[in-house]
Amino acid sequence: MDIALWDAAARFLELPVGRLLGRVHKSVPLYGSGGFTNQTIRELETQLDTWVREQGIPRVKMKIAERDGSAIDRDLTRIRAARSLIGDDVELYVDANDGYSPGQARRVVRHLEQYDVRWFEEPVTSDNLVGLARLRQATTVDIAAGEYGYDLVYFARMVGAGAVDCLQVDVTRCGGYTEWARAAAVAAAAGLEVSAHCAPNLSTHVAVATPNFRHIEWFADHDRIEKIFFDGVLDPTGGTVSPDLSAAEHGMLLKRQDVAQYLVSP
């Protein structure tokens, strides 16, 4: 509802949403996100190659911690394969989706440092703020979490506990653009940056209006769906995006004929 109201205000004023929110960045960085644990090594390499070689994206993220962390050797094999393919100049991130115990996460993070992994997302459950903080103190890899935040208190507790190096915020969960700005202010007060979780074409507009912004998760599934459903979606090629200043609102139009095939009768 909050996002829709900002969109309506931008339509009334004939402005891009990013400018209405108070744009401070010309463009913002992004990272390619996917690398699911059910992918074979070949499938993982193909996806990474598309991002890095074809689209020129200098940051990529893959999933680890399949079956609640019980396949750590497989995780490390996939990380080695990823680093070998992308080379040393591309930033490599991993996302455990709360899959490890604190002990497992501590063992894994030593290997992540070896392969110059820069970002360890949700190594343990995001409710374990003490566990996140202790792991953060034990490694040079950035610890990230926050995508499940639905209110400002959640973000304040996470930041106050010293649990993360970068606070993730999902604009479709946190309460829209208005609450995003408040969460970003909480992070800024602690000297932290924020990163956008998913919803890339919505996130871009609030990202360019956030001074302490790091990057957008350009999630493979969301990117695919948004291209199917909308005209005017942004192109992640090159690793940065910027809202179209010539287009009002979000700059996207629903492809009604293309979407019709997915309608479900009541």
Tell me the layout of helices and strands.
Elements: H1 2-13, H2 17-21, E1 28-33, H3 41-54, E2 59-63, H4 72-86, E3 91-95, H5 102-114, E4 117-121, H6 129-137, E5 142-145, H7 152-160, E6 166-169, H8 176-189, E7 193-196, H9 200-207, E8 213-219, H10 220-229, E9 230-231, E10 240-241, E11 253-254, H11 256-260
Parallel strand pairs: 1-2, 1-8, 2-3, 3-4, 4-5, 5-6, 6-7, 7-8
Antiparallel strand pairs: 1-10, 9-11
- Major β-sheet strand ordering: 1-2-3-4-5-6-7-8
CATH superfamily, please?
Answer: Enolase-like C-terminal domain
Strand content bin:
15-25%
Q: Roughly what percent helix?
A: 40-55%
Query: How far is the first residue's CA from the last residue's CA?
Result: 24 Å
The CATH architecture term is Alpha-Beta Barrel
Report the CATH C-level class. Answer: Alpha Beta
Give the overall pLDDT as a whole number.
Answer: 96
Question: In sequence order, what are the helices and strands, one letter per element?
Answer: HHEHEHEHEHEHEHEHEHEEEH
**Total helical segments:** 11
Radius of gyration: 19 Å
Outline:
By secondary structure, the chain is α/β, with parallel strands linked by helices.
Mind explaining what this structure looks like?
- By secondary structure, this protein is α/β, with parallel strands linked by helices.
- It has a single domain (2-260), classed as TIM Barrel (Alpha-Beta Barrel).
- The protein is 43% helix and 17% strand.
- It contains 11 helices and 11 strands.
- The strands form 2 sheets. Strands 1-2-3-4-5-6-7-8 form an 8-stranded parallel β-barrel, surrounded by 8 helices. A two-stranded antiparallel ribbon has the order 9-11.
- Helix 9 links the parallel strand 7 and strand 8 (213-219).
- Helix 3 (41-54) runs parallel beside helix 4 and helix 7 (152-160) runs parallel beside helix 8 (176-189).
- The chain is globular, with a radius of gyration of 19 Å.
- The two termini are 24 Å apart.
- Pfam families: MR_MLE_C.
- Residues 41-142 form the Mandelate racemase/muconate lactonizing enzyme C-terminal domain.
- This is L-alanine-DL-glutamate epimerase-like enolase superfamily enzyme.
- Its cofactor is Mg(2+).
